Amino acid sequence: MSVADSKTGVVPAQPFYQIYRGSSLGKALFESLDELIQSGHINPQLAVKVLTQFDKTTSLTLASQSKSKCSAKSHLNTFNLVDDVWTFQLQNPTFKFENNAETVVVPGKCKIVACKAGSMDAK
């Protein structure tokens, strides 16, 4: 449950993980926003709002509409847990998807980042 600010009555926004900004879609959005700022079409504050909305929408959409499950087989190079965020470095992983029994082999290294479901403040 969120608590509204007593002066403004506004409920503060929950921060969402920013990991999807590193995706090709997130990078393209960032570059486009940077070009718009440089050309004077938008201000930096609007760009921050757009990126924050991107974080929220991407997280919520993947959580509600992604139903695929897969298993992975690989050599685990490293793993780490910091602030409820798991990071796994895999070498030559093989992923097998349950829905259509498709198998995908990734040559070389693969990094998996797994975060707690929901926003960063969700407990």
How would you describe this structure in keywords?
123 residues; alpha+beta; four-stranded antiparallel sheet; 30% helix; elongated
Describe this structure in words.
With 123 residues, the chain is α+β, with helices and mostly antiparallel strands. The protein is 30% helix and 29% strand. It contains two helices and four strands. The chain has helices at residues 24-38, 44-65; strands spanning 70-82, 85-97, 103-105, 109-115. Strands 1, 2, 3 and 4 form a four-stranded antiparallel sheet that branches. α1 runs antiparallel to α2. The longest helix is centred in the middle third of the chain and has 22 residues, at 44-65. It is elongated, with a radius of gyration of 18 Å.
Distance between the termini: 11 Å
Shape: elongated
The number of distinct helices, counting runs of at least 4 residues, comes to 2
- pLDDT averaged residue by residue: 83
How many extended strands?
A: 4
C-alpha-based Rg, rounded: 18 Å
Structural class estimated from helices and strands? alpha+beta
Uncertain segments are: 1-12
Percentage of residues in helical conformation: 25-40%
Report on the biggest sheet. 4 strands, antiparallel
H/E series, N to C? HHEEEE
The percentage of residues in β strands lies in: 25-35%
